[in-house]
Design goal:
By secondary structure, this protein is an alpha+beta fold. It has one domain: Glutamine Phosphoribosylpyrophosphate, subunit 1, domain 1 (4-Layer Sandwich). It is built from 21 helices and 23 strands. Strands 1-22-21-17-16-9-8 form a seven-stranded antiparallel sheet. A seven-stranded antiparallel sheet has the order 7-4-3-11-10-2-23. Strand 12 and strand 13 form a beta hairpin. Helix 1 runs antiparallel to helix 2 and helix 8 packs antiparallel against helix 12. The protein is globular and about 60 Å long.
């Protein structure tokens, strides 16, 4: 409760303080559950993660956040399916066994490498704001931002889900398998039941008060008024029925009874009803967009552009650091972390000023990752101590526009999937319902997102508009950073992570560890975290990162040691395949 009150109080203190307070509410826990009994392959993958070594493969590989989901994807790949086919199986199982993080009621970003055309592209499955929404949606009668959880819990925060449309679009474009067959693993598991993992049980217990507010949610997660216990057998017949409907027609999510049920549930929620309409669902489409790339260590680091800030901010961090020889510095050297920390602060300053849905707000996308601009920004890193202050830069625009800094909050409940198939296609997808358990509204066996709270609650600052303000039909800015690293025109690494706005730091650090410091993918995803976004250096408690507290403090950084719970899943593509799964979560990599 103290943490929640801190989030609420911090909203009045500006975007940096609010973001840090929000991210202190860590809605994830770390367990490996009882998954070793699933199969010898799963047991071996769990052991590899515990031993700190990558999983090896030659033909295909999948890495994701839950062994049930990974096994479903592996079965598809082993049968000759593509990475797009496997994504459908993995995501629909994740929505069942890891419902607090992602699912049909949320959104996703996909970065895709197509082996046949040798082209890189992205699909935007981000949620959209209702057409009836107004920029002042999250302001009270006095024009002040709502308390965070007053905005999150209920219908006020729900956008039109994009994940079903993204999966259907990707599979139709790049799949080989039968759509209905790809949903069957999740249908069977939902019908027959699965054992609740210790991680899911812990998260339900932690959030029991909010989960109890809505009858359908409470009856599922809190049977007889008590949180589900680890090891309990859980079925979800409603979810199985929903998937059977989608098996006949994937567009059924956006038409007819499913869409109507979502609209009715959202708009009738008490005390915070929404404004969704069936027209909002009819108009929804996943959008193909160009990838955003930036150079680092002789590679091109490519990812999702607006409305995600992920690829731009990761690209800015790495692009600035490419002007220094990080490889010559030891990973334990505080000077390496001075460079990384202040490069991140500079990138986050640009993020807060410029980044939003470019369909609504003109953005200097090319200018933000232009090597000349980044080289100029990198000159600010030339000292020995922390920068006393940072401010947004002035990237090249094709026209001028005045914007104010963002004040949105992102909480770290998300999931990431990396897949390489036997044809050479690569998928890197980050998927979310935003806060843990989203809006806490449940419809037809799945939770609905609270993605609209990723918009800035304020519309203007000192009379200047905020780029990431809410507008009808707009997609909220995200930090999700699904990434494919390219080398000489071919994919070399697929990676991504959950973690709210810390996603950017987690992904950038892992790429640095792999490319500059020569760590294998398992070492890179397991490496202790040190993340700086707004000036305070967050160091992972109980790890060697905490040893940096004194040196970084002496350089002038504010330093805080705390739990940092990423969920990195990575696949190295070189001579064969190597998979890494974050030891902080229950996921694995499987390959053949």
């Amino acid at each position: 409760m103290r943490k929640i009150l801190a989030v609420m109080a911090a909203l009045a203190a500006g975007p940096a303080v609010a973001q840090q307070a929000a991210d202190a509410v860590q809605p994830e826990a770390t367990t490996s559950g009882g998954f070793a009994a699933m199969s010898p392959q799963v047991a071996a993958a769990l052991q590899a993660k515990e031993d700190g070594v990558p999983v090896q493969g030659k033909t295909w590989m999948v890495a994701a956040a839950n062994p049930h989901a990974v096994q479903a994807g592996a079965d598809v790949l082993a049968a000759g399916g593509t990475a797009a086919d496997a994504l459908v199986a993995v995501q629909t199982v994740l929505g069942l066994v890891e419902p607090q993080s992602s699912g049909l009621g949320g959104g996703a970003f996909l970065v895709w490498y197509d082996a046949a055309s040798k082209q890189l592209t992205t699909l935007d499955g981000r949620e959209t704001a209702p057409l009836a929404a107004t920029p002042k949606r999250f302001l009270d009668a006095e024009g002040e931002p709502l308390k965070f959880y007053d905005a999150v819990v209920g219908g006020l925060s729900v956008g039109v889900p994009g994940t079903p449309a993204l999966l259907a679009t990707a599979q139709a474009k790049w799949g080989k398998g039968n759509w209905a067959d790809l949903l069957q693993p999740a249908i069977t598991l939902a019908q027959d039941g699965f054992d609740v993992s210790p991680r899911l049980a812990a998260l339900i217990a932690e959030d029991a008060e909010r989960l109890a507010r809505f009858e359908s949610t409470a009856s599922y997660f809190l049977p007889q008024g008590q949180p589900l216990q680890a090891g309990a057998r859980l079925t979800n017949v409603a979810y199985a029925d929903t998937l059977r409907t989608l098996a006949d027609d994937p567009r059924a999510f956006y038409t007819g009874a499913i869409a109507q049920d979502i609209v009715d549930t959202v708009n009738a929620a008490v005390p915070a009803g929404g404004l969704l309409s069936t027209l909002d669902f009819t108009l929804y489409a996943a959008r193909e967009r160009d990838a955003v790339c930036a150079p680092f260590q002789g590679h091109e680091v490519c990812g999702m552009g607006p409305p995600s800030s992920g690829a731009l901010t990761v690209g800015q961090i790495l692009g600035m650091l490419d002007n220094y020889d990080l490889g010559a510095l030891d990973p334990a050297d505080p000077q390496a972390w001075r460079l990384i920390g202040d490069a991140s602060r500079l990138a986050f300053a640009d993020r807060g000023r410029y980044m939003a849905d470019s369909d609504f707000v003109p953005m200097p996308t090319a200018g933000l990752v232009d090597p000349t601009y980044l080289a100029e920004r990198a000159k600010l890193l030339g000292g020995d101590d922390a920068l006393p202050e940072v401010s947004p830069g002035t990237p090249e625009w094709d026209h001028a526009m005045l914007l104010s800094d963002d004040e949105s909050i992102e909480l770290p409940s998300t999931s990431h999937i990396s897949i390489v198939d036997s044809y050479g296609n690569v998928a890197s997808m980050t998927t979310t319902i935003e806060n843990g358990f989203g809006s806490r509204l449940m419809v037809r066996g799945f939770l609905l997102n609270n993605e609209l709270t990723d918009f800035s609650f304020r519309t203007h600052s000192d009379g200047v508009p905020i780029a990431n303000r809410l507008e009808p039909g707009k997609r909220p800015r995200s930090s999700m950073a699904p990434t494919i690293v390219m080398k000489d025109g071919a994919p070399a690494l697929a990676i991504g992570s959950p973690g709210g706005s810390r996603i950017i730091g987690y992904v950038a650090q892992a790429i640095i560890a792999h490319l500059a410091w020569g760590m294998d993918v398992q070492q890179a995803v397991a490496m202790p975290h040190a993340v700086n976004r707004f000036g305070t250096y967050d160091l992972e408690a109980g790890t060697t990162a905490a040893d940096l507290e004194g040196p970084l403090g002496d350089m002038g950084f504010d330093v805080k040691t705390q739990d940092l719970n990423s969920g990195l899943h990575a696949i190295e593509i070189s001579d064969g395949l190597k998979g890494g799964a974050d030891p902080r979560r229950e996921g694995i990599a499987l390959g053949d």
